[in-house]
């Protein structure tokens, strides 16, 4: 199935915004109580971070470009530069994201496509060895 899918098709294949909402809500439910990750989110409420990640992922995977309309170019490394992100934060982030992806019960092909991207993106955010 994914031999013919591109990221632009993935949004529809997943089920659209509802699926990304489940993914991101589940992810932030884990982040909310994670002592390593929670300090990386300075807002009192995780709602704004949830909204930004959901819109970013929707846009990246071929949905509406609301993220760029509201925030401009993603510039992910630049936006995360103020925060110290080590391999430990990356692993914690991936742990919560893996749980969220598992909740979706995707086909193996769609799961792999999404997970490969999330692993690369998480590694790209690492900006400190300690």
Question: How would you describe the overall organization of this protein?
Answer:
The N and C termini lie far apart (41 Å). α2 (17-31) crosses α3, α2 (17-31) packs across α6 and α6 runs antiparallel to α7 (108-125). The model has no long low-confidence stretch (mean pLDDT 87). With 130 residues, the chain is an all-alpha fold. It has seven helices and no strands. It is 65% helix and 0% strand.
List the secondary-structure elements in sequence, H or E: HHHHHHH
Structural class designation? mainly alpha
Question: N-to-C terminal Cα separation, in Å?
Answer: 41 Å
Give me the count of strands: 0
Helical proportion? 55-70%
**Average of per-residue pLDDT values:** 87
Organism: Rhizocola hellebori
Protein name: Globin
Family: Belongs to the truncated hemoglobin family. Group II subfamily.
GO molecular function: heme binding; metal ion binding; oxygen binding; oxygen carrier activity
Task: Give a brief rundown of this model.
The chain is an all-alpha fold.
Secondary structure layout:
Layout: H1 7-14, H2 17-31, H3 47-60, H4 66-71, H5 76-80, H6 87-104, H7 108-125
């Amino acid at each position: 199935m994914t031999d013919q899918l591109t990221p632009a098709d993935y949004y529809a294949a997943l089920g659209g915004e509802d699926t990304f909402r489940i993914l991101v809500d589940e992810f932030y439910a884990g982040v909310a109580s994670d002592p390593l990750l929670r300090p990386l989110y300075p807002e009192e409420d995780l709602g704004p971070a949830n909204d930004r990640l959901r819109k970013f992922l929707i846009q990246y995977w071929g949905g509406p470009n609301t993220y760029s309309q509201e925030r401009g170019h993603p510039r992910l490394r630049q936006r995360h530069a103020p925060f110290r992100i080590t391999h430990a934060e990356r692993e914690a982030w991936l742990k919560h994201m893996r749980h969220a992806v598992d909740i979706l019960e995707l086909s193996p092909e769609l799961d792999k496509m999404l997970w490969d991207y999330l692993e690369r993106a998480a590694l790209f955010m690492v900006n400190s060895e300690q």
